[in-house]
Design goal:
Layout lengths: L1 H28 L4 H31 L1
């Protein structure tokens, strides 16, 4: 379970990079709704920082025991 908590935030970061790239491709092609890809990317970046903070708290709590 501990390995899972270390890997998942970086998957969110990779997903954010993918959505940013996809948003720029759709913007370049002139498609409507490209902004949705950027919103999803922002959500992924938020989740990255949230999960990192959560993992740090979990680690600190287990170190105190």
């Amino acid at each position: 379970m501990n390995g899972y908590l270390r890997i998942i935030p970086y998957i969110y970061l990779a997903a954010a990079l993918f959505f940013i790239y996809s948003g720029f491709v759709r913007y370049g092609e002139g498609e409507e709704g490209f902004w949705l890809w950027f919103v999803i990317a922002a959500l992924c970046v938020f989740m990255f920082f949230f999960r990192m903070r959560f993992a740090r708290r979990f680690q600190d709590r287990s170190d105190k025991k």
